[in-house]
Design goal:
The protein has 552 residues and is mainly alpha-helical. The protein contains 25 helices and 8 strands.
Length: 552
């Protein structure tokens, strides 16, 4: 493909987006103004609360909300948010041609029950737990097994409190990896546990009392005391080796850190477990003649501890009475779907960091408990709200719309981009649905587009991404005509090229082309006697456009 030949078409295509909102990073970002009205739908009570609270803020802030998103924009956004990829040509056409007034609700229910939803959630949480570059890669080398375990939990729609209990108790096959990552490092695990499950930052209290929050060293080491007795054991199981999490009956955490001597309890002095913001754990004393077994000589499972701190921590952390646990996951799910948490960032719940919509966050938190921590139910209500269904272009042009007066434009994550490229190009149909992309190609694409290492999807386009999109052999290979893929289907279709443009645009941008786009792309593709080259260049242009690479 010759990029120089193609610039005039790329410019013509870019000019078709009307009313575009521009956000600048290394790449230009265009989000279509989408203007159709929402289909009428019954409002669930909590959905009504969402829309009332959000719209009340617009009125208070004197903001004009964006227009409702088109059906095509909603379709693409729902697929990306719920299953992590764009819809196929057939899926897009079926939805857009459907005249059922309840089709959005039916679509959301269908996607939440789809196996791809479980896979997408497992990928998201794998990154939250371990990041792309884990601190202990040797310990997490079997994280694929944990991701499979996570996928099973999401497929079965295990309630969030039960899922976290399984992770912390680590009694099921494949569930131990969270503890494994922090083997013999209870302080590090304390930081991660509070950040991920409670949405709180506790790392400052590792060395000193927090300067403006009610977080002390005593709080930090009290939490670490619940984890200090855990031990990670690797054992052989058939031809494989698996991790086991065992717990001793004795052992205490010690004060460490630069300011430890200045605090109650001198450095090296044992500290009793203490619930965050609560009381010390009431723990029975061990018998005077108790002697810890020589665990190194034990080949079978260790005996259960006389008293399990791990069990008590799990019960407290996942309790509906815990002021942080439910609010943290509600805020995370909201951020995942709306582009920004009501508390931002999502792992900094504290009195000084006030929520943008405190009443709504409290209402959703209470409702989620009443729904027995049903993640799908929470996602369904958010995705079917009017607030979620706004267009991405409006009067407000800030990159992170705090008041949700328009949809936030977000780059696709590395996993979403790879999966969407496979769907759009028909890669799986060309090589077989059970075939996998070569690991070298997949790893390279993850390396290029997966640089954010915090699991939050933050992204800044740069030279590597630009070079990959323009010159990368992996993308070119996916586009090149092979039996069953998009290029091949378009080249072998007997319909007029004007009609074939429907498949081209629905497969890539999840929308029908405008009249102008249909005319210009048809003219360009047919300008060559053998249109394979110009067609592949056209596909490349759409796949590298901001309309494909961003969730809008």
């Amino acid at each position: 493909m010759q990029i120089a030949r193609f610039r005039h078409l790329e410019m013509a295509f870019a000019g078709q987006a009307k009313g575009i909102c521009m956000l600048v990073s290394c790449f230009c970002l265009a989000a279509l103004v989408l203007g159709s009205t929402l289909a009428g739908k019954e409002k669930a009570s909590i959905r009504g609360v969402i829309d009332r609270e959000i719209s009340a803020t617009w009125k208070k802030k004197e903001l004009k909300a964006a227009a409702p998103a088109t059906e095509a924009a909603f379709l693409r956004r729902a697929y990306l948010d719920l299953v992590g990829m764009v819809p196929t040509y057939a899926e897009a056409r079926a939805f857009l041609d459907d005249e059922d007034k309840d089709k959005r609700a039916k679509l959301v229910d269908q996607l939440l029950a789809d196996e791809r939803h479980a896979r997408h959630q497992a990928e998201i949480w794998d990154l939250i737990f371990f990041t792309r570059n884990p601190a202990n890669p040797s310990a997490t080398r079997k994280r694929g097994r944990f991701q499979e375990w996570l996928r099973k939990q999401f497929k079965e729609n295990v309630p969030w409190d039960a899922l976290v209990q399984k992770i912390l108790l680590a009694e099921e096959e494949g569930s131990a990896m969270f503890h494994v990552q922090y083997r013999n490092k209870p302080e590090d695990e304390t930081v991660a546990l509070n950040r991920i499950f409670l949405g709180t930052q506790l790392q400052c209290a590792r060395c000193h009392d927090h300067p403006y929050e009610e977080r002390t060293q005593r709080d930090f080491y009290g939490m670490a005391g619940f984890l200090v007795r855990l031990s990670v054991r690797e054992e052989k199981q058939g031809k494989d080796r698996v991790w086991r999490i065992e717990e001793k009956s004795s052992g205490e955490v010690l004060f460490t850190g630069a300011a430890a001597e200045a605090q109650p309890g001198q450095k090296g002095e044992p500290v009793s477990p203490k619930f965050l913001g609560g009381e010390e754990l009431q723990e029975p004393e061990l018998p005077e003649d108790f002697k810890e077994p020589d665990y190194k000589k034990l080949k079978e499972a260790w005996p259960k501890p006389v008293f399990s701190r791990k069990q008590k921590l799990t019960e407290w952390l996942t309790s509906a009475k815990n002021p942080f646990f439910t609010k943290a996951i509600v805020n995370r799910v909201w951020a995942q779907l709306m582009g920004r948490g009501m508390v931002h960032p999502v792992d900094d719940l504290n009195p000084e960091n006030e929520a943008s919509h405190p009443a709504l966050l409290e209402a959703l938190t209470q409702w989620f408990v009443e729904q027995k921590y049903d993640l799908r139910a929470l996602m369904r209500e958010i995705v079917l709200s009017d607030a979620y269904s706004l267009a991405s272009a409006g009067e407000d042009t800030t990159a992170f719309p705090k008041w949700y007066d328009r949809a936030r434009v977000r780059p696709l994550s590395a996993e979403e981009l790879i999966a969407s490229l496979r769907v759009a190009t028909g890669f799986d149909e060309a090589v077989g649905k059970d075939a996998k992309m070569p690991s070298s190609a997949s790893s390279y694409m993850l390396k290029i587009f997966g640089k954010p290492n915090d699991g939050q999807g933050r992204f800044q386009g740069g030279v590597d991404e630009h070079l990959f999109l323009n010159n990368g052999s992996q993308l070119r290979g996916m586009i090149r005509s092979k039996e069953g893929n998009l290029s091949h289907l378009l080249l072998n279709d007997e319909a007029p090229w004007e009609e074939r443009m429907d498949r081209l645009f629905l497969s890539t941008l999840t929308r029908y082309p405008t009249d102008s786009e249909r005319k210009k792309f048809t003219a360009y593709v047919t300008s060559n006697e053998k249109p394979q080259e110009t067609l592949e260049e056209s596909i490349w242009a759409l796949l590298t456009s901001s309309q494909f690479r961003f969730n809008h």
